[in-house]
Each structure stands twice: as structure tokens, then as C-alpha cells.
Amino acid sequence: MIVSRGTVDDISAVLAVDGLILRGGFRFTSQDTAPAGRSGMPARSILLVGQAGAAPWPHFLRWRERQPQAIADPLDTWARGVIGSVAEKFGARAVSPSDRPYLPFQQWAMRAEGLRPSPLGILMHPRYGLWHAYRGALLFEEAIAIPAPEASIHLCDACVDKPCLKSCPVDAYAADGFTHQACLAHVRGADGAPCRSGGCLDRNACPYGSDYRYPADVQAFHMASFAGL
Q1: Is 165 helix (H, G, I), strand (E, B) or coil?
Q2: Of 105, 134, 153, which residue constitutes the final position of a domain?
Q3: Are residues 139 and 182 in the same domain?
Q4: Which of 153, 183, 211 is where one domain is finished?
Q5: Do 29 and 54 fall into the same domain?
Q6: Maximal C-alpha separation, the chain
Q7: What range(s) does the 4Fe-4S ferredoxin-type domain occupy (predicted)?
């Protein structure tokens, strides 16, 4: 059975109600170790679900107002619920980046959209810059006709100054990779107030995708989650 283009359009329309979008997809091949689909058989196709900018934020906040104050990982819980209901409607299995054992979401995303990582590790999108995210995926046991991603320039290759590597007070993104503990200690400390209130200084220094930059309150939410505050 082929899941039609019309069905994919229907999925997009349902996701849009909550500010989410499809982020490409692909068919698994015989060379892949495909995850299980809804019935437990290996999935044949995957559609990535995510966001561009902070479009889901108002929808999430309205949901959050109806939840217990102490709910754990509220954004992840909200996204699981939304994507899970879409999976139920269209006969798919929903998976999340926070599932254990971890699934290769970054590799899936690069394959689905033809993206490459920025120096910060976040995938650089030719339109959204660093201001996008993947919230889950839909796994189908049927084949889906999905066009290959269009070739696009990797914006980091065109960026000479690399301001994303020069703005962090503790040089959290060093040549050897992300120094998690240094970043965490800074964000939690007295000097980390700008990061707590407005987000990662390195990420905000990137000149690309500024139209999609998360508002300060959204960045503060994510920073508080990262720092356990």
C-alpha cells in the first residue's frame, strides 16, 4: 500500500492546528536497521515532525494552563500527545527524541532534509537558521512517496567570522566540542543571568534565520529546562 500525497497533506493540516510542521522524510532501505512500526513490523517510511521558529508556543501554553503545575517535561509531554494523536489517526507509530534507548533523530533529520550541523551542533537550516526543532516522528509500515530534499547551501560554509563561537563567556563551544559542565555552571551562576533570561549567547549571535528567532521567554524556558532551574 502507498500512503498517498493527499494523506501526507492531510497530516500536515492536522499538525498545523498546533503549530507543528512536517520536516521531510524518507523510506528505509534494506541497509537500514528500521525501527518497529505500529504493529511491531519494521517501519518502511518515516515522516519527521517539528517546528520552525516558535509557532507551537501559544498552543503549548494554552495546554499548559490546564495541566498540574508540577508536571515533568511539559513541552515533551505536550508534543508526545499531539504527535501521538496524529499517529493514531493515520495508522502510524509515534516516536520522540527523548525515547529510550535514543533513536538517531539527528541522522534521520539530516537524511530527510539534507541538513548539516552548525559549529554548535544544531542543524543549520537554509531558511530557519538555528531556530527550529524536531519534536517527533511518524513511523509507517507502508511505503510513502517522498521527494528527496533539494540541494541547498550550508550557510555555515559561507560564514567567515563564526560569531557563534565567540560570544559565550566561558567558551562552551570549544574546538573539542561542547563543554557541558562549564556551560551548566555558568548558566546556574551569578554571571549567567543574560543566558537564563535571553538564551544561549552563541546561538543568538548566529546571523541566519533571524526572522524565526525564538522570543526571549521561549529561550528562557528552554534554558531553565537545560539548567534544571
Answers
A1: helix
A2: 153
A3: no
A4: 153
A5: yes
A6: 58
A7: 147-178
Whose cell is 524536531? That residue is 134
Residues 67 and 119 in one domain: yes
The Cα–Cα gap between 116 and 106 comes to 9
Phi/psi at 26 (5° precision): -165, 170
User: Are 84 and 122 in the same domain?
Assistant: yes
Mean pLDDT of the 127-131 span: 98
Residue 38 confidence class, pLDDT cut points 50, 70, 90 = very high
Residue located via cell numbers 559542565: 181
pLDDT value at residue 2: 46
- Rounded Cα distance between 134 and 33, Å, is 21
> What DSSP character marks residue 124?
E
- Cα–Cα separations (whole angstroms), residue 94 to 23, 116, 133: 14, 24, 16
Same domain, residue pair 116 and 11 = yes
Same domain, residue pair 67 and 34: yes
- Domain residues for the domain of 120 are 2-153
d(C-alpha 155, C-alpha 159), whole Å:
7
List of long-range contacts for 7-16, beta carbons under 8 Å, 24+ apart: 7/90, 8/47, 8/144, 8/146, 10/90, 11/47, 11/86, 11/90, 11/138, 14/86, 14/89, 15/49, 15/82, 15/83, 15/86
CA 24 to chain centre: 12
Phi, psi dihedrals of residue 212, rounded to the nearest 5°: -105, 5
- What are the tens digits of pLDDT across the range 56-100? 999 999 999 999 888 889 999 999 999 999 999 999 999 999 999
Residues 59 and 88 in one domain: yes
State the alpha helices, DSSP H only, in 92-188.
105-113, 155-158, 180-188
